[in-house]
Amino acid sequence: MSRQDKAVDLRSLTLEQTVTLVAEHGQPAYRGDQLWRWVHRNGVRSLDEASNLPGALRASLDEAGVICTALEVADVQRSVDGTRKMRLETRDGRSIETVLIPDGDKMTQCISSQVGCALDCQFCATAKLGLTRNLTAGEIVDQVYLAKALLAEEAPGQRITNLVYMGMGEPLHNFDHVMQSLVLLTHDVGANLSHRRITVSTVGLVPGIRKLGKQEVRPNLAVSLNASNDEVRDVVMPINKKYPIEVLLQTLREFPLEKRRRITFEYVLLAGVNDTLDDADRVAKLLRGFPCKLNVIPFNPHPLAPYKRPSRETIDAFQQRVRELGIATYLRTPRGDDIAAACGQLANREQQQELVQLR
Ligand code: SF4
Predict the structure, then answer these.
(1) What is the span of the domain harbouring residue 19?
(2) What is the pTM (predicted TM-score) of this model?
């Protein structure tokens, strides 16, 4: 195991953990507080930048292999609709992506939780990469800090208002690091985001949803439904064979929701697969009685999936039917699809091309 594998990563630590670490190096609590501010408020990329800390402390931390995880910005792509996609590189040379989506006075950031993904959703480009590894809490929060820095440079005055764990990976597969990142991102010294403006999106990992329900502070929950029956969902999202629709819905019925909170169901509309009026009827029946809303997402075509986007008429008819049947339904307009930043398209261009050639 290399020194880096064993390293303590400052960006993954809570304030309390940082104070404890600094105490182990013979320093008082306020030094831990200072260090935490450098890392999470000022976003320093190395310990050397923490200028008001004693040199002896910095040297001692360095000697002990303490690092400050810093992702590197490898590339930024800008869509004609204002969406920005950042490709970021980890210390061990892995690529991940995060997307900034402006919408009126809102700025939503979509962040990744894993390098690749182990689940095999058939419409998703990330799925084709397979899972390389989980991201650390530090690597998850650094996506937000780097996006903040980009906005400060390119769009002063704009700030990230909403955060969605909908990028590469299944967040509930990386449960502990994702929960730790939520603690860091909601801290008032750090990014100071309200948990009510953070959404964790899952394919429906039942044990993870149950575990999330037991957390003291819970983000919003979004669940990818994407089919109106098990037969189709088994194909589109193979995880359904393990946790079929009824098991998933029963788990969600038991999920403790805060007052006036709703579960969001995501439904990627695939031409000829799950887009008929019968599908709409079945979806409405499944969701009846749930405090929920349904986001209909017309499929964003990419070379790694065999599906097509339905026609505008089909999309409208589907949405209207579910809405008439009493379910709050919203159409998610594709954003950033000219730079492959739209939902289901994350896997950088080079990786996409390599995978296409292998087929
Ligand atoms: S949709 Fe999400 S969970 Fe499914 S394969 Fe893609 S990244 Fe993984």
Answers:
(1) 10-63
(2) 0.92
